Amino acid sequence: MPAPTLRNAAGSSLAQRFLPLILLLFIGSGCAALIYEIVWYQMLQLVIGLTTISLGLLLGSFMGGMCLGSIAISRLVTRGRHPLRVYACLELGIGLIGILELWLMPAVGAFYSDHAGGHDYWNIIARGVVAAVCLVPPTLLMGATLPAVARWVEMTPQGVSWLGFFYGGNIAGAVFGCLLTGFYLLRVLDMATATYVAAAINFAVALLAWALSTDNAVVAPTETRATANEAAADSETRPCSIYLSIGLSGLTALGAEVIWTRLLSLLLGGTVYTFSIILAVFLFGLGIGSSAGSFATRTKISPRTALGVCQLLLIAGIAWTSFNISHSLPYWPIDPALIGDVHNGAWYVFQLDIAVALWTILPAAILWGASFPLALAAVAKPGQDPGRLVGGVYAANTVGAIFGSLFFSLVAVPWWGTQTSQRILIGFAAVSTFAALAPMLFQRGQAGNNRNLQREPALGVAVFLAITLLAAPLLGWTVSPGFWGAVAYGRMVATYQGTLVPQITPERDVPQHDGTSNVYCVYTGEGLNGTVAVTVSTAGVRSFHSAGKVQASNDPHDMRLQRMLGHLSALSVKEPKSVLVVACGAGVTAGTFLTNPSVQKITICDIEPLVPKYVTPMFTKENYGITDNVVNQNPRVIHTPTGDKTVEVVYDDGRHFIRTTKEKFDVITSDPIDPWVKGCAALNTIEYYTMCRDHLNPGGVMSLWIPFYESNTETAKSVLATFFQVYPKGILWSNDYTGDGYDAVLFGQPEGTKIDVDEWQARLNSPAFATVKQSLDEAGFPVLADLLGTYAGRASDLQEWMKGAEINEDRNLRLQYLAGLSNNTYQGPSILRGILNHYKYPDDLFTGSAGLRQSVRQAIELPRRIQTAATTSTSTLIVASP
Known about the structure:
Blueprint: H1 12-48, H2 52-76, H3 83-115, H4 121-150, H5 157-188, H6 191-214, H7 228-237, H8 240-268, H9 272-296, H10 303-328, H11 337-340, H12 345-379, H13 386-437, E1 442-443, E2 456-457, H14 459-478, H15 484-489, E3 500-504, E4 519-526, E5 531-537, E6 542-546, E7 549-553, H16 556-572, E8 578-582, H17 588-592, E9 601-606, H18 610-615, H19 620-623, E10 636-640, E11 643-651, H20 654-660, E12 665-670, H21 686-694, E13 696-707, H22 713-726, E14 731-737, E15 740-748, E16 755-756, H23 757-765, H24 770-778, H25 784-788, E17 791-794, H26 814-820, H27 828-836, E18 846-847, H28 850-860, H29 863-870
Parallel strand pairs: 3-4, 8-9, 8-12, 9-11, 12-13, 16-18
Antiparallel strand pairs: 1-2, 4-5, 5-6, 6-7, 10-11, 13-15, 14-15, 14-17
Helix pairs in contact: 1-2, 1-3, 1-4, 1-5, 1-6, 2-4, 2-13, 3-4, 3-6, 4-13, 5-9, 5-12, 8-9, 8-10, 8-12, 8-13, 9-12, 10-12, 10-13, 10-14, 12-13, 13-14, 21-22, 22-26, 27-29
């Protein structure tokens, strides 16, 4: 006999009255869960790395814990326990563990740093262990909350409907938590404060749940287990096809989120705000769909049929999103720069981004959300344990989601690209449709459960399946690889539409210097961690694109910066032997060190394997073949006019490499992508700069690229103030553009810097440094004074300008929130003017003969720089004596 349904002492009508309050509890629970998820991912990525593999391990641990919790709760807690009290204990436990994680994660991180090393499979296993130790305990409790409360409802259509509403309420809370965290808690406060807010919500939810339970005593069931015969009979009629369908629904949902987040982040800009908006809209759609599906379960519509129709419509929904990303959004006539500099301009851009995300991904998200309550209703039977019902369906959906996220992020996209991956999504949606509907092709007669009765064909189901067979290949064929301009120029693609050649062109077919300004794409690649492109213009400019913008090029101004970054660093160390280059890009900075006669080993660390393998060799002339013929990550020897050099390429993010390597270096240069890109702030924190300082040999130097374009004063102050806290004797070298601020090099030596101009000049005049001198000459520095004339200021002189700057630390990653608000602004000139207003000639920095020192001073104090510092607006340059 089946176990009796739980009822409160006053009757089920009173229990129904409290269901809206329980819905409110789930809203709070979902809000807290998303706060934790965002905070924990940020904290743990600082430990195990920012690569897609690390993110996959984090996501797998998080969702795996929730899956295990949903299954375990109904087996470990008997039905005699009050559901609301069980729920209260779970929420209390989540809050306590959430606070504990603030101490646990740094401790685990320190242990990992001390014992981890290398980049082989064992290190990946170690990262997985760290993720599991930190995430599985709290997520076990999170996954158990919905199955625990499920025992409060009866297995009726109305009761199952409420389970769907609880799920939808949880998602609604998650939407709020996502936006609250991304746009306020972490933008204004820090990760610790966000954690305390989430824990406070958990405690409030636990208190309210316990209070509700005191007025609703539960009568313990007389039997909590089915007999062996009943269990056997149940197994014979168990609707495995529903579990398969909802599992595939979870697979396609998370797979699509992985793919579409990657593509939309190119079009909208990969800021923390973009990721928050995409996630919030996706969850918003799930919440709407869950509510709609819950209402549908109260009608006479067959839940199985409705589930199958949802999966069928998902084929069209996936194709809709693919079409918009590839054929519509890149052509919207939008120029974010038009509103970037206006007051609160970033918030207007966010409104536009929300509209884009809603238009693009909401239809499919609604269908995925509706599938869960429909699957619950399809497998529900009277007398069934609601906890086991919800736990089983939730686990199937979560297992599918785990597989989908890992498969598409680690296998499908890197191997086959987003076009094929979206076609695979459509194929899985078709299989899910068949799993839900195919068992209905032959329905039993009216005589009940007699298995020997002849089954009758279901014409309507056959029609749906026929539509599926036609729609899946037809709509899958419409999925295109998209316009390469979106990869190259991202959110600014509309402003380049008149110059971009629509097809990818072999480099041999690109016309050179023909008087036009057309741009041709000669390479695109979708890698494990990002999408990259290389373009060539008819003016002869070759550019490397990542994160939807130009990251490096052979344009004279970019070449000037890349040479500065390498030569200033190498010349500042008397005999540098070992160099670490974080972020390979076009390889120009790394290649610069090949010209230095004393350098023996160059280690290049890049997060995306496609860059050193395919992108950098396209700039061989500019980088002296630094990564030509790279084979995996094996060191190789390059024969140069200045001697043999060992070059090693490591595929990892720079922070994780620095954290786990035992090597020390004479020079560390860091040239990552823009600080507004999500994750890059981790390469600009006090803790990262300190790790780099600790990995320098005595007399070593760290140098860093900083953009002034697509930035504002607050962002620039944050970068400089953070760097100068670790390198209080640091220097700023400016790469001006026609006298205005463009980008710069931050430079620091722990012991301080002294530049003997005579000694530098003697080196440059020696035959051993002939290639160095030639390299500088090609970059626009024919004499030493031109190179040192880029001096813009020192930490000691900029204290007043940096006053009030927000320091970027691991606990707040403030820079990515500041920079994300300024990536559509162009305030480079005013940033440089503000810095030069505090200019003082550094008498104690340059030593040597009076003549050389005077030529350096004249180069620094060019009339254009004095004028730039003296005015607050762009004006005609006035020639003045130095």
